[in-house]
Amino acid sequence: MKKLMNCLLIAALVLGVAVLSAAPVAAQDEIKICQVTDLGGVDDKSFNETAWNGIKLAEAELGIKGIVLESKSDADYMVNIDQLIDDGCDLIVTVGFMLQEATATAAADNPDVKFSIIDSTVGMDNVVDQVFQTDEAAFLAGYAAAATTKTGTVGTYGGMCIPTVTIFMDGFARGVAYYNEAKGTDVKVLGWDMEKMDGTCVDSFEDLDKGKQVTLAMMDQGADIIMPVAGPVGGGTIAAIEDRGSGLVIGVDSDWALTYPDNADIVLTSVVKKMDSTTFGVIETVVGEKFAGGKYVGNLENGGVAIAPFHELDEMISEELKAELADLQAKIIAGEIELNETYVQ
Q: How far apart, in Å, are the Cα atoms of 301 and each of 136, 284, 330, 331?
């Protein structure tokens, strides 16, 4: 009996040593991919959420651990980044132009930490800059809007007039202008002046009522198709169209027919940025130990940007218009249609 107890004790001690020695290895091998959001939050139905979807996909397919910190004000940007550095994150993904300064500072102070910023350029060896030629896809959306409007007036507005927002608005207006030149029409664009490079912005990515009010004002001026480039604030445009019982919206960043399924019947199309797939791609380089800083430019040619299908409104879009959009896309890719040099990445 005593001999049996000794054997059991030895086995327990051996097992305990094995467990203790295994635990640190598991923790050491765990790859942590961390995100800092802009002010819209991780469930903004826009760029923060789309980037987070890329991290969640990596959790499912690559076995990494995803962590997200939401910024409630711009004072949180540096605080959140510093916290994630202290947490030992293997990659810190910062989302939005507004995080450029904080990301650049953190990357310079921590050259051994890997970063990827979305919608901005830092230009450091330990940072992958994810930027998107969204004016290419917005051009197609503007052309489609000009071909579809019944009032001859369309509109666009931004959350803040920063380059990653106004690039959408400028591309949209240029698509309308191209349609007018090709068809001899005079479709008007509210909210953006291509000559002055200035437009309507509500100075918020959070206040849905501001989106609703500016949409109602544009509708009062005759606009029946509106493209908000304002994150969650775009939900105010949907609310305005619902209240009026007429009008269509063009989504941005994600496919709004899928993001807002209850409102898919008023979503003409969306200007999509594939931030989920580009973020996933950066994560793959971290997991495969092939990370290298540099710039990734998402455009029509590589599928980094696109216009979404017409979904429930497909029947109102003629085959002729679909063919024209396909031809325009090919011409943009070939460089036959030149967009604003200000935004060329």
A: 10, 22, 9, 11
Determine if residue 222 is left, alpha or beta; phi over 0 gives left, psi from -120 to 50 gives alpha, anything else beta: left
Whether the CB-CB separation of 38 and 96 falls below 8 Å is answered with: yes
Answer whether 83's CB lies under 8 Å from 59's CB. Answer: no
Query: What are the residue ranges of CATH 3.40.50.2300 in the chain?
Result: 31-131+277-298, 134-273+310-343
Model pLDDT for residues 16-59, shown as the tens digit of each residue: 333 333 333 333 478 999 999 998 889 887 789 999 999 999 99
* Overall fold of domain 31-131+277-298: Rossmann fold (3.40.50)
Give the Cα-Cα-Cα angle 34, 38, 42 (nearest 5 degrees): 65
Residue type, 15: L
Fold of 134-273+310-343: Rossmann fold (3.40.50)
pLDDT in tens, 73-114: 999 999 999 999 999 999 999 999 899 999 999 999 999 999
Distance CA 180, CA 185 (A): 5
